[in-house]
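REVIEWER CHECKLIST
Item 1: Sequence provided? yes
Item 2: Single chain? yes
Item 3: Sequence as submitted:
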Amino acid sequence: MKKTSTRLADGRELIYYDSRDDVVREAVDRRPLDRTVTTSEIRRDPLLGDSVAIASHRQGRTYHPPADECPLCPSEGERLSEVPDSAYDVVVFENRFPSLAGDAGRCEVVCFTSDHDKSFADLSEEQAGLVLEAWTDRTAELSHLDSVEQVFCFENRGAEIGVTLGHPHGQIYGYPFTTPRTALMLRSLAEHKEQTGGRNLFADVVEKELAETGAGSRIVLEGEHWVAFVPYAAHWPYEVHLYPKHQVPDLLGLDDAARTEFPKIYLELLRRFDRIFGEDQPVTPYIAAWHQAPFGTLDEFEGVTRDDFALHLELFTIRRTSGKLKFLAGSESGMSVFINDVPPETAAERLREVASK
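Item 4: Structure as written out by the authors:
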């Protein structure tokens, strides 16, 4: 992998990740852009104890542009985009309309390919591996920023999810705090460790799923170094958690064997998601979210260290059946109590049925 860092016309950083070492990146951003000005502010909710990012400048962000005006496609002639070069493998740049910025963290965009009409599932294993390297490199770089305590790599796919740009891309958020969802995991981790005499909650969950066999198994896909399963208490109709079998706290901890196998496992998982509701159905909207250990102090979670956390990816769709979405209504949005219409064992069976031939 070759990494080339440059600056856009408004001062934002852009990084090319290339599979070939001989690629030269010298294209200049020719757009007449003013310096980016953001107004991100973090406010803490005194009742719930969580944090909210206030980012009014995002009201003016790009919204469903025509394909020939996509800001994530390479620049071509006088059609200038966020990417100055005429082609790229993988590119990462600071978001022009960030939710988090300055002392309130950082937001980046990750373009998986220059091909506007592809999705992540269409990538080759080599391309998917390069995206993994970009995620890993950005996790390492952002972890050194004083304003970043936790790094979150994720992809939103599909208009139903709320995606406003059709180009295959994801995002990376560098939060200035430990997110509420991760804090819940860390508290459960600490309680389990105390109650079981030091056992690791993540390891016990994975071990239990691997031990289940037969019709009730929730295992969807298993390789030598990765395992994917529908969790026992899945919140979403179709939800899969993907873990490396050798527990590590973040993407930086993955060894070469796990990195090599990841593209094959993950691409197969995404392709199965697109077949859940039938070959003649639209592509499946989903959110794919990497959960990594925070880089900040964990003092409030007694007895827990970063190494106790387990890197994993959570993949889920908001579509519950063909043509119908799972909406978050009163119980889910008002009280955070999910009601799942699809038994996890049924979801796992369906995801095994649609395996690639």
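Item 5: Key structural point noted by reviewer: The chain has a mean pLDDT of 95.
Item 6: Recommendation: ____
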